[in-house]
Amino acid sequence: MTEVYHIIGFHFVTYNLLIYGKEQTPMKISETLLEIRDHNLAGYKPVIDYANWRVAILNFSNELRAEKITALQRHNETDEVFVLLRGRCILFLGQGDQTITTIHGQDMIPHTVYNVKKGAWHSHTLSEDAMVLIVENRDTTYGNSPFCSLNSVQQEALMELTRSLWPHPGLAE
């Protein structure tokens, strides 16, 4: 008997073992050897923490709609890695130190690694079917990751970037 599992966009297949011609059900693998985690609800959730790093999954949530983004965040102590697993995601990057002077948009390509550098203002908008893998330092918190509010002109610029990168209605919904 063969069982197929779908976890975070990857397929795993387990096979029953044949021992001395007799089919045996495989034993469950101990979490001391392998951790398997997923996240299928809306929003962000850390799924694996180890030593100094964390792996998280970000799924679509209403507060990440482009029209609801009112601030960008930066991490003062670490880079942050994003990998689009499915759907669509625009990564917004803001230039500037204490204030944001220019906003850029990067339409992410699936299975490509995007490393947002330490201190870079950023946010993202996702399609409803999107799933993004995030790798960051485990101690990344609101305490070392301030937000910078966007003014109305910057919010409109962010919306215009979204319309130019996703010109077909419904892609960001």
Fraction of helical residues: under 10%
Instruction: Give the CATH topology.
Output: Jelly Rolls
Q: Sheet bearing the most strands, described?
A: 5 strands, antiparallel
How widely separated are the two ends?
41 Å
If you compute it from the alpha carbons, what radius of gyration comes out, rounded to the nearest whole angstrom?
20 Å
Name the poorly predicted regions: 1-16
CATH class: Mainly Beta
Q: Give the oligomeric state of the chains in this entry, treating copies of one chain as homo and distinct chains as hetero.
A: single chain
- State which percent range the strand residues make up: 35-45%
CATH architectural group: Sandwich
Number of helices: 1
Along the chain, the helix and strand elements come as EEEEEEEEEEEEEEH
Query: CATH superfamily assignment?
Result: Jelly Rolls
Keywords:
mainly beta; Jelly Rolls; five-stranded antiparallel beta sheet; three-stranded antiparallel beta sheet
